[in-house]
Prior knowledge:
Strand 11 (180-182) and strand 12 (190-198) form a beta hairpin. The protein has helices at 4-31, 255-266; strands at residues 48-49, 56-57, 71-74, 83-90, 95-102, 112-113, 122-127, 136-142, 152-160, 165-173, 180-182, 190-198, 211-221, 224-227, 237-240. It has a domain at 10-54 and 119-275. The protein is globular, with a radius of gyration of 20 Å. The longest helix is centred in the first third of the chain and has 28 residues, at 4-31. The protein has 289 residues and is of the alpha+beta class. The strands form three sheets. Strands 1, 11, 12, 13, 14 and 15 form a six-stranded antiparallel beta sheet that branches. It has a five-stranded antiparallel beta sheet with strand order 2-3-4-5-6, with no helix packed on it. It has a four-stranded antiparallel beta sheet with strand order 7-8-9-10, with helices on one face. It contains two helices and 15 strands.
Amino acid sequence: MFNRNGGxxxxxxxxxxxxxxxxxxxxxxxxxxxxxxxGPFEKGHAxxxxxxxxxxxxxxxRLGDGEPGPWCFVAPxxxxxxxxxxxxxxxxxxxxxxxTVVDGHGRALSNTWTKAMPxxxxxxxxxxxxxDGRPDFIVDIWNGGCGTAAGIxxxxxxxxxxxxxxxxxxxxxxxxxGDIVMFDKAGPYYFIETRFIGNGAERTKDGxxxxxxxxxxxxxxxxxxxxxxxxxxxxxxxxxxxxxxxxKETDQLTTAQKRRLFEAKFGRKAQSDSxxxxxxxxxxxxxxx
Length: 289
C-alpha cells in the first residue's frame, strides 16, 4: 500500500534537494565566475567585478520548487519598480522561460524568452549593464549534467531599449561575479565569456591532445552585446587546462589553428581587433530566441 506520509516526505526531500542545489549554484557562481586557476588574468590583475548579486524575489516560495511559475523579480534600487516575470513553457520538443519585463504601472515592456531551459535551477541578477539609467537583467539557468557540462550556464541578457527590452542569449562556463567587469571607473561594463575547446584534429606543439579555456570579451552597447576584444589586452585568450595553475596564452596552437577550432566549434569566427565592436547578430548562439 502507498504510504502517503512517506510519499510526502520524499516529495519534500526532493524539493529541499532542489533548493539546496540552487543555493550551491548561486554561492559558487557568485564567488568564482570563470575558473580561477586558469582564468584570463594573472593573480592580482583581474579587473573590478561589478555584478550585482542582490535581487528581491517577490514570490520566493515557488522558486526552485519545480513549479512552472510565474516567478517575479523586482530590480533593486529602482524607483519605478521594474519587474522581471519568468514563466516556464513546456512544448513537445523544447522547454524555455518566457521573459516579460513589466513597469511599475503593469505595462509589459518585452515579450521574449530564453533559448532553452535544461534544468529548473536558475537565478536572476539586475544592474544597469548598458548604463542608460534603467535596470537590465541577467537570467542564468544551470545546464545540469556532469563533468565540465555541469559548469555551463544558459545566459540571457535582457537589456533596456528606448521602447522596451531586448534579449540576447548565449552560454558560458561557471558564470559568476568575476565575469561582469569594468576596466575603468566610468565604465563601460563588459562580459567575459568562457568556452572550453579541445585541439581536435589540430596537431599541438608537443603532439599531444590538450584542452583549453577560451575567453572572449563583450561590451554592453545599448541593446546589444558586442564583441570587444580590442578594448583590453590579451583577448581573445586561450589558456591551456593544466594540472597546475596557469594563466598564460598557450603556444600549443598557432593563431590559425585557434581560429579554425573556434569557427568549427561555434560556427563563427573568433573576432580580431579590427572586427571588435560589431554586433553578433549573425552568431547562431547569440540570436534573439
